[in-house]
Design goal:
heterodimer, A: alpha+beta, Phosphorylase Kinase, domain 1, Transferase(Phosphotransferase), domain 1, 2 domains, 13 helices, 11 strands, B: alpha/beta, Rossmann fold, 7 helices, binds adenosine-5'-triphosphate, Protein_kinase_ATP_BS (chain A), ATP-binding (chain A)
Chain lengths: 351, 245
């Protein structure tokens, strides 16, 4: 796109170039370009023998606006969501003044690269981390906005998820400042662009879908049907189907609530599926009532978990064919599940 | 600070004008009346010719707005981004001018130390959430645009989704050029509901010349008509920011 190019030229720096701030007189030696986007270019730089990330833009407004967000992030107790802000200054050069800010360099792989390299089992772990950070962010009155895998970097060890690019971060109740269509509920026709916690939770669910579709996909019919279809076609998503759909439909009101449900799903995975404790059972019924508008059969999830199906081809269509053949097994599983449910009721009655 | 009104023309085209006044001059005229002109060039696979590109940039430059050339697939995202960016620019300008009145004419936001700019930006952010916005959308409906019109419609609906998330009031009007009889045809008169477009857009016929200049001129008078209709008092001539008491 044109605008990016002209911006790129204006803010283009060479490796080894030294930038000195007009106000604070700090010096930064450019090491390499980290990336660029609609709002500026980010460089890796060295200052006082420390690596930092330096963002320049010919648009001073967007720099100031992002600095504002980073400053208020610093006030959020215990949150390590965004990079910490180190310096804000202007760089005067022949052709004019360019605003920049300096932040902590967040080194690591992006969300999708990490999951790709280390394995899909990392996905729920990272999502759990992200949700607890979002919880803190939301309770302090913000919505992240432009949540997407490219803006999530996994640092470590131990692996820890961090967000970069706070350009979309918006005060709750206002119109989302910046978004990326695939992760935007408005694009899919599933809600407004008014910043509320659910806006971010929708994006989290889309990121989970994204792990199975690294190249994303475009809107065709849009709406929950297309997204349900996309989930159905990937077997590895089947155990999260309920969970993802609930987030897409805005059934989780807080990140905390969503996190609790994911913890439950992960726990269920680990433990013997016939053992339903009272607490687990409670969460389960909760989800059920919440997602009642979507037709989700629990048996699907269970079928996917039976040993028979574990190593099957990922296509849900194939899975369905298979399922018809092994209808007997499915029924057995379903009956076991049903009996377990009854048993759980019984236990609760007793308590 | 009082919030007034922001007026924008959003021109969506795919090439060069070839009839009537110079669109760049018309955009300059708009700017004189504190109406910003933003231009989005929609191209197919191949890029736009040099002349068309120059005109698009020229119109936005002299209209004090933002321009961008994009593929049809990026149109929706671009339309809302350009509108938002131009709105913030305008507000920033307004705040800057107010600041100059306080600090003396030589000072601007850039002269403030970075720490102080944050507060100014907060004001701009607040205003962009609450300010009243009028967007006049000018759609090129010459023959080459025909297959892009459904995308344009979707992009405009997406724009209203973005703008309606603000708490400030929005008003939209849509003109197409060339029209059936005249250079320009009004498709939608000022309304807060851009969705009304859905039923009108499919009926649109395309063809003929590309009278971009006359279209911008007509757009300007549409802002005027609106004002006289609302019978605003005497001399509050087209200031972006009509200071309301
Ligand atoms: N603190 C950081 N540490 C490491 N890398 C960073 C940091 N900040 C930004 N980057 C890199 O620079 C790239 C561009 O930065 P950023 O996303 O902030 O720019 P942008 O102009 O806001 O982009 P977008 O168009 O996505 O909004 C990022 O994709 C990332 O690779």
């Amino acid at each position: 796109m044109m605008m990016n190019h002209s911006l790129k030229n204006q803010c283009k720096l060479n490796v080894g170039q030294v930038i000195t701030g007009k106000w604070h007189h700090n010096q930064y030696t450019i090491t390499k370009e980290l990336g660029f986007g609609a709002n500026g270019i980010v460089y890796l730089a060295q200052s006082k023998n420390q690596y930092v990330a330096l963002k320049l833009s010919d648009n001073g407004m967007s720099i100031t606006s992002e600095v504002n967000v980073l400053k208020s992030f610093a006030k959020v107790q215990g949150s390590t969501l965004g990079p910490s802000l180190l310096d804000v200054d202007d760089w005067v050069r022949g052709t004019g003044t360019i605003s920049f800010y300096v932040m902590e360099y967040i080194h690591g792989l992006s969300f999708l690269e990490f999951v790709e390299q280390k394995g899909k089992s990392w996905m729920p772990v990272l999502v759990l981390q992200l949700l607890s950070d979002l919880e803190k962010l939301h309770s302090s009155g913000w919505v992240f906005g432009d949540l997407k895998p490219e803006n999530l970097i996994v640092t470590g060890p131990p692996p820890k998820i961090r967000c970069i690019d706070v350009g979309g971060t918006t005060i709750q109740g206002r119109a989302i400042k910046e978004f990326t269509e695939f992760y935007d509920r408005g694009y899919w026709g599933l809600g407004s662009r008014k910043a509320d916690p659910k806006y971010d939770l929708f994006a989290v669910a889309m990121i989970m879908i994204n792990t199975s579709y690294p190249k994303r996909f475009n809107k065709t019919t849009g709406g929950i049907n297309q997204l349900t279809q996309a989930i159905n076609e990937k077997m590895e998503l089947s155990k999260y189907k309920n969970f993802i759909l609930s987030a897409l439909l805005g059934h989780y009101t807080t990140a905390k609530e969503m996190r609790k449900q994911l913890l439950y799903i992960v726990g269920e995975d680990q433990s013997n599926s016939s053992r339903v404790t009272r607490a687990q059972f409670r969460t389960q019924t909760q989800t059920r009532t919440k997602t009642s508008s979507v037709s989700i059969s629990r048996s699907n999830t269970y079928a996917a978990n039976t040993p028979n199906h574990q190593n099957q081809a990922p296509q849900q269509r194939q899975l369905q064919k298979k399922k018809r053949k092994s209808k007997g097994i499915l029924e057995t599983v379903f009956i076991v599940f049903f009996v377990t449910l009854l048993y759980a009721f019984y236990v609760i009655e007793k308590l | 600070m009082n919030t007034g009104k922001i007026k924008q023309i959003l021109l969506i085209t795919d090439g060069c004008s070839n009839s009537g006044e110079d669109p760049i001059a018309m955009a300059a005229l708009a700017k004189e009346q504190d109406i910003t002109v933003n231009v989005i060039g929609v191209v197919d696979q191949d890029t736009i010719d040099e002349q068309g590109k120059r005109e698009i940039e020229g119109i936005a430059l002299s209209g004090g707005g933002v321009s961008q050339i994009v593929y049809a697939t990026q149109l929706a995202h671009t339309v809302q981004m350009v509108t938002r960016k131009a709105m913030n620019q305008t507000l920033y300008g307004v705040v800057n001018r107010q600041l100059q009145q306080i600090l003396g004419s030589s000072k601007s936001v850039e002269d403030l130390p970075p720490d102080k700019r944050g507060e100014v930006m907060e004001v701009v952010d607040d205003l962009s959430e609450t300010v009243e916005l009028e967007v006049l959308i000018l759609v090129d409906s010459s023959a080459s645009m025909k297959h892009k019109l459904p995308t344009v419609k979707d992009a405009l609906l997406d724009l209203s989704l973005s703008l309606n998330a603000r708490s400030g009031e929005n008003k939209y009007s849509v003109l197409v050029f060339p029209g059936k009889q005249n250079d320009v045809e009004k498709l939608l008169d000022w309304t807060p509901k851009l969705e009304a477009l859905t039923s009108i857009f499919p009926k649109l016929t395309t063809g003929g010349l590309t009278p971009t200049g006359p279209a911008i001129r007509e757009a300007l008078s549409s802002f005027k008509k609106k004002r006289s209709l609302r019978s605003l008092l005497g001399r509050d001539d087209e200031s972006f920011f009509e200071e309301s008491v």
